[in-house]
Amino acid sequence: MKQPLKKIILFTTFLTIAFFGFIIQARAQGGDTTDEFQKEFDEFQKSIRQEFEAFKSKNDSIFYQFLLENWKEYELMKDKRKTVPKPKVQPRADTATPRKVQEIKPLQKRKTMLEDTGRQIQYQLVPDKYNAIARAKPYSTLDFYGSRIEVQKVRTTSVLNDNEVSQQEIAGFFRDNASNDELLAAIQLLEKQAAEKGFNAWGFLKLLQDASPYYFNTPNEQVMFTWFALLKTGYDVKAGYNKKNVFLLVNFDVPVYYLSYLLNDGKKYFVISFPEQPKKQASMVTFPESYPGDNQPVSLKVYKNASFPPETMKKELYFKNQKIKLTYNRNMVDFYETYPDCELPVYFPPPPSNTALKSLSAYFKPLFKGKTQMEKVAVLLDFVQMDFPYKSDEDQFGKEKYFFSEETIAGNYSDCEDRAILLGQLIKYFTGLKSIGLVFPGHVSLAVNLPENIRGSYINYHDARYYVCDPTYLGSKPGMLMPGFENKQPEIINFQ
């Protein structure tokens, strides 16, 4: 957000507080000045709205000129995750060999999910007229992964030519819609609903993408609407084109893999494909300048699950000769499947759905009666080792691919990092104990801050001992480190 706009907001807040202070004082003194203060305050608010509109119009005019000028063609690139060969078969522990007491020395701690919070959906200063328009317009209902979203019916116009795209047409789309108060009000309503339902910025992007056919008919127009809406809500995005197709280009807040991107001013803008768009391009034409203001990357970070209504799916597991009737939320799984492949720390914080945790509680809570925290951890470690079949990502997908915990519960197979993510969440839910991810070269494990010291491998972190609990090392107990990693230094993922 630019400094002048910040000053407008702060001063408005200050004067509002002062105004109500004057009202209270006037009433206490029996004075008849309330109407005068109200009149002055209304006039001030009117001037603030006018200043905001002028500020916005000026930025739109500047940006429109940018769009008419210097566009460039950029080569597209793609990053791949570094892969290290993993075991074809799940390693089995030698429980007869006594556990060694070993302190693991980590590498310098990577930036954690807790230390870099990123930007989730945040409201901007919204003119009153948008709220009035939002209340007056009829709407349709969009099913967004089980959530009912109100999508307003508004008038829109298009300047795009389906036969060939030009920068003048893209500039014209921005110009016409920047003055369309009905469309701006509709975007504000979508943002409001996304925030209320706990969607992160990626969820908001996907919501705009799904809502775009309600406003525009052609694929290019729908891409342009999504770009325009993200731009007007403060995100660092661009529109690019290649022959007949317009593409959405997004700057993310974490590294992303396997998606094409262009490099502009030291930042990566990734191509987000819409349905029916060609998937492979060698280059893209776009504008180098950014929309005026403090535009933020689209955040892929998620700390708690959005409120996706449950579409309950069932599967059966067998543990300690008993059947577990496991359920999970298909809507949540479907949403997470849309995620770009990104860096590993993003996947650790979100817990399984309430649907999944409730079904697991029905089995584990009676089993845990009378058990110590240490015993509970051992049971959960055994459960993840035994009940979630192992298969390497290379064998499943031909590349490294990470799962959120709900995806691992729903899936048929899982790799080492998927199991570490799931175990960390189950230990947190059933015991309240803290854990950290351990990223070794070629392997991901978990370490848990156990309530008492044991014989085994551990890492000192924040003046506490975290003992290795490896959900991939079949039959291993807390404190057992998989052979071959005794002299390897892991990176730490702190996600709690």
Return the CATH architecture of the largest domain. Answer: Roll
How confident overall, as mean pLDDT? 85
Global Rg: 27 Å
The domain count comes to: 3
Distance between the termini: 30 Å
Give the total of beta strands.
19
Secondary structure class reads alpha+beta
In terms of DSSP E residues, the strand content is 15-25%
**If helices are DSSP runs of H or I spanning 4 or more residues, what is the number of helices?**
13
Strand order of the largest sheet: 1-11-6-7-10-9-2
CATH fold type of the largest domain: C8orf32 fold
Overall 3D shape: elongated
List segments where confidence is low: pLDDT < 50 over at least 5 consecutive residues. Answer: 1-24, 44-55, 113-126
CATH class of the largest domain: Alpha Beta
How would a crystallographer describe the biggest sheet? Answer: 7 strands, antiparallel
Helix content: 25-40%
